[in-house]
Amino acid sequence: MLDIDSGEETEVLYRMVQIKGGQRIDKFRTTDIKRALRFHKWYVKRYRVGLLLEIVPPKKKYDWKEKKVDYSFE
Fold this sequence. Notes:
Distance between the termini: 18 Å
Strand content: 35-45%
Largest sheet: 3 strands, antiparallel
Shape: elongated
Low-confidence stretches: none
Structural class: alpha+beta
Oligomer: single chain
Helix content: 10-25%
Mean pLDDT: 88
Number of helices: 1
C-alpha cells in the first residue's frame, strides 16, 4: 500500500472478516492483496456470502528498556 504522506510503499495486513450475530469472525489474513481478493472470490462462489475486507496498518511499539522500535500488526 502506498503511504500518502511519505510516498513510500508500506506493508499492511489485509483481513477478511465475517460479521455474524454481532460478532466478528476472522476468515483469512494476508499481506498480499491479490491473495485476499482471490480468497474472497472463492468464498463468495462457494458460500454465497460476502466478507468484509479490513486494511490494518502496522503499529509502532517502542521498547524503552532496550531503546528499539518494533512494528507489528496487533
